[in-house]
Input
Amino acid sequence: ALEDADNAVASSATITFSGTATATGELNIVVGSKYYHNYILSVASGKTATELATAFKALVDADTKAPFSASISGAVVTLTFENAGSIGNDTAIYYTGNVAGISVALTPFASGATNPSVDDTLLALISNIRYQGIVSPIEYGITNIKTMLDARFNVNNKILDGVLFVDKTDTLANHK
Output
């Protein structure tokens, strides 16, 4: 695992609840993955915004695989990535459902900065090991990994091949 870079900042987002429920219903709040982090918030008539924020924080706290944590101030829940860097900035957050009397405002993930670097010290850990692939986000840079993999290609009397898989989140138009 990579350590966070010095002076790195973690991405964060906010969910602000307001109002008091005048009916029962359900809100589905998705953070990053509808499959892994889809939080179903049951709302009873009379529930306040602060109670909903507390209930949502409890759902996030119970999610042992979430790469982010939740903190609360009144009716505002702040989600903060556990690791710093800009990767979290591209994480989607949305909700579906409506409950009479309740409003939900989302501020998307932002402000993550200073990614860790993949340097020769880290790559030395795998320099003599055969492997099939390295997966790395584009934000960490690929120059050092590419240089190492190029040097391993078709080495005489050694099988040290490898492939780099790069992950990049962007719009369809930019990918094209």
